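worker-03 picked up job from queue 'complexes'. Input manifest follows; two sequence lines, order preserved.
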Amino acid sequence: MRAQLQISSGSMAGRDEDPTALSAIDDPSRQEPPSAPETDFEPEHAGLATSNAKRMLGFVLAMLALSFCVVLSLAVGAKWIAPVDVLNSVRGIGTPENMVIVNDLRVPRTLVGLLTGLALAVAGALIQALTRNPLADPGILGVNAGAAFAVVIAVAVFGLVNITDYIWFSFGGAIISTVLVYLISSRGRAGATPIKLTLAGVALGAVLGGVSSGITLLNPEAFDRMRYWGAGTLNNRSMEMVLVVLPFILLGICLAFFCTRSLNAISLGDDLAQALGSNVQRTRITVIVAVTLLCGAATAAAGPIGFVGLMIPHIARWIVGADQRWILSYSLALGPVLLLLADVIGRIAVPPGELQVGIVTAFVGAPILILLVRRKKVSGL
Amino acid sequence: MSIEPSIKYQAQRVNFGPSQIILASPKGRFSIRMQRRSVVAGVVIAAVGMVLALWSLAMGEISFTAAELLNTIFGNGTAASERVVLSWRLPRVVMALALGAALGASGAIFQSLTRNPLGSPDIIGFNTGAYTGALAVIFLAGGGYFQIAAGALAGGLITAALVYLLAYRRGSQGFRLIIVGIAFSALLASFNSWLIIRSELEEAMSAAVWGAGSLNAIGWEQAKPALLAAIVFFIAAAMIAPRMHMLELGDDAANALGIRVERSRLLLMVVGVGLTALATAAAGPISFIALAAPQVARRITRSAGVQLGSSAILGAVFLLLSDVIAQRIVPDTSLPVGVVTVSVGGAYLIWLLLREAKRN
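worker-03 finished. Artifact:
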């Protein structure tokens, strides 16, 4: 009976809402000896990697995995091209056929995948840190709904059919809707508190989403285009698209790393962060600008891809603990790993066709997430 | 001995909180304590809903005066008016109210369980799973209303059960439940969008109409089983509401108050899922009511947390209003009501946030 109580006290309220405490709960071995129910000698927010050396090692491993995925993405497809031939084609000395496939198709596709993957993951980490809500993803600020709404308008009202035409509509829609969400939530004395940001984002997203689906359900042509755009794909991307989104994503990443320290302070609560000398209001604005740039550019380049921004930050947090500097770095590396891997699987899953990357992402990511959230803490890992 | 004036003055300024109404049975076995503001707000919203219901019974392609409507309702109408009002319009209005209340109440339960304003039955994947079930029926069997409803029910319940089992490990933890739910929803949502992409455009569009949530196909035949289930679940919800508020205090405190935490949580979850399941099977996954109704009700009643009763009443009126709009906004077409609930609900939530900011 006593042990039963202790087990439940190990998984008690307060921690429920704290994703970082996850690794420290529910392991019966940690409840012994019975005389000491609080066996959490480690800091509560520690992840799997307990020292900076281990975190660095993990980061190097993540980068290696990323390099492997990049090579895979260049080599795998309807035609398998050996890594050596890939290298030759990039250097301009391969066979003409390989050079067309690699340089004109797979390199832009891989670059777009790399950029959108890291942009979505970092944006997700930022928004989860800012709202202190583990359910938050970049879409919470209305980015996806705004982008989709603008593309629906482009299709249904202006009759645009070209993917490159959608880029600016989608980017513009994303920016406008995020600005609106911020304006709505920043009214009043308390400013844009996390709860108001979340609610405003959900509300505006709902309005835009409702109008979008109303339009598409009355317009078969628009419905047809939107069902493909809405799935999210890396197919048919060009070098121009890479160059269009690159500066925005780079700027977003710089802003993100600029405010990691303040985000660490904010994780203690807005009041305490203020008392520690962190400018909460400025941090909020910087983070929102960064998320808009990152997520808006990613959605413009590849369509609305969910799940990366939600899942990768959780995984990063379980590995490295609560420090935003590490979480952001790991997200930067692991986001593209998931996206590129999903894209490669999508290319070979249903020959001769392809699966959209946005569809595969969840199939690759969800089982991993479920396995991780169920695991016990394995000592020494 | 007399009390010092200054102390008396201070005593008058003690704030005992919002004024309360307490109803109790003679021996005090059953009692309920409510905030006066919640009761007043609930009655006002219900009255608005009543007027709206009567109006939507009377108005349409064929309109009736108030006298004609009342005559028809009390059984003295013409054959035509009875057909239009009682057989065609009434089931739709009643279902809108019942399903709206079910969605509002289940939203309140899940937001209280997860202590998260984003918490809704969606987080355990119910609606996504129901959509998968319905899509499977539509694309594979091409079934009618009841087949689709059964497919949705099966899909949703299987998903919810899987999520609960996968998240279960020495008790279901709020956070783990949320993560597993999200993962499963994302998985199924991807599968759904794949099904939509690879099917014929016409079929895909009719599936999408179901997916938005619609009351278009509803008559008495469809309404009866749903209403019966609704009554059962509403009674269950009313019985577990007090426990819900004690669980909000945290598992430790609830335990100390004599609540069996894990069992209560499971019970709440069963009732919450049941309410959503009923609404989704009957009319498709109508979104946003479960999310918005508790938040809006909380702001109107100025209560500290989400409340079951006011959320249900607000949800009912909200769905009815949305359906009235959905039937009339585009001429000659009846939009799926789910399209309107998200737009109108979202707009209202925005207005509420803005007003709240102004007042502070």
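worker-03 released lock.
Chain B touches chain A through 69 residues (CB under 8 Å).
The mean pLDDT of chain B is 83.
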